[in-house]
């Protein structure tokens, strides 16, 4: 066989495998990866990892924003990620959520779902929710309507118009309202909420999708001290049921919520451990003081 034909064969085989993986997942059969059967909506965490990145690299115009990054997160873990500006924190989240394709490396959700085979919207449907720094709630809708809308996202246009939450969805809505401290504000327009309340509402919208992994980018930026403290309580109540990756610069907040902290620098892991351990690490001190 000529090299051209071999290349074409390999290209077709991998395109077919990717297509099959997508089709099977959409129809609720198997997840992509090593062919291990996984029930619809289930993530295989038998190896003790819900998220696994290995040797991931990406360059922008020759600049390595992520450089052989490897890290993993356990199911139910609340992981904090810190690092100076430009360390690659946002780019890492972009890669996990399918917004940016890495040049090389592996990114797995559980041990069988190869995230690099999926598009951004598919990754959200697989159970990875992302909260960007700025709240993006629908200001003209009430708190309740915002949460209701979050339930509709995977339904078709017609189904959305006729949509009414069933009793299980209604229960979930009520539970989420309590979790995000907005049960007393259901009829308020989202536009009239404080900055902190808007952030909680957006987290609530993600929770309506019951994500297995939540990625949160600077969630307490701009919050009052009281809102920050309530957000810490909220995250602590979510861990266990969900896995969380929180990128933050606010060390006081990190101190309240953290178990394990990952320090990113120049697109790779510089240090990992408890906050006390990483804060005492000479390399970490140098990176932060050298800013
Ligand atoms: N699309 C892009 N094109 C070119 N360079 C990029 C792009 N995205 C990120 N970068 C560069 O990659 C590096 C990492 O950026 P990134 O935003 O991931 O860092 P960060 O750790 O999130 O920083 P911050 O704490 O300031 O948000 C930066 O030097 C940034 O300028």
UniProtKB/TrEMBL annotation:
Pfam families the UniProt entry points to: ABC_tran, BCA_ABC_TP_C
SUPFAM superfamilies for the chain: P-loop containing nucleoside triphosphate hydrolases (SSF52540)
GO molecular function, one term: ATP binding
NCBIfam families: urea_trans_UrtD (TIGR03411)
Bilayer-crossing regions: none
Species of provenance: Ramlibacter monticola
Keyword set, alphabetical order: ATP-binding, Nucleotide-binding, Transport
Alphabetical list of Gene3D superfamilies matching this protein: P-loop containing nucleotide triphosphate hydrolases
Cellular component per GO, a single term: plasma membrane
The protein's name: Urea ABC transporter ATP-binding protein UrtD
Domain ABC transporter: 51-291
């Amino acid at each position: 066989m000529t090299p051209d034909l071999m290349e074409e064969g390999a290209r077709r085989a991998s395109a077919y495998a990717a297509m099959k993986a997508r089709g099977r997942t959409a129809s609720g059969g198997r997840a992509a990866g090593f062919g291990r059967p996984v029930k619809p909506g289930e993530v295989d965490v038998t190896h003790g990892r819900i998220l696994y990145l290995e040797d991931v690299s990406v360059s922008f115009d020759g600049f390595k924003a992520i450089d052989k990054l490897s890290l993993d997160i356990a199911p139910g873990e609340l992981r904090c990620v810190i690092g100076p500006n430009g360390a690659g924190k946002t780019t890492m989240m972009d890669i996990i959520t399918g917004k940016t394709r890495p040049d090389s490396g592996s990114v797995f959700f559980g041990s069988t779902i190869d995230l690099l085979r999926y598009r951004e919207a598919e990754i959200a449907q697989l159970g990875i929710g992302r909260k960007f720094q700025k709240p993006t709630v629908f200001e003209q809708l009430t708190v309740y309507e915002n949460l209701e809308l979050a339930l509709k996202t995977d339904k078709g246009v017609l189904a959305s118009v006729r949509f009414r939450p069933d009793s299980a969805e209604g229960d979930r809505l009520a539970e989420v309202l309590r979790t995000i401290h907005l049960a007393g504000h259901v009829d308020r327009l989202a536009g009239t909420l404080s900055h902190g309340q808007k952030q909680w509402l957006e987290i609530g919208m993600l929770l309506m999708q019951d994500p297995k992994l939540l990625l949160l980018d600077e969630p307490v930026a701009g919050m009052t001290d009281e809102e920050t403290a309530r957000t810490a309580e909220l995250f602590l109540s979510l861990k266990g049921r969900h896995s969380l990756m929180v990128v933050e610069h606010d060390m006081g907040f990190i101190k309240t919520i953290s178990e394990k902290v990952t320090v990113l620098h120049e697109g790779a892991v510089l240090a990992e451990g408890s906050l006390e351990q990483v804060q005492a690490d000479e390399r970490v001190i140098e990176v932060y003081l050298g800013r």
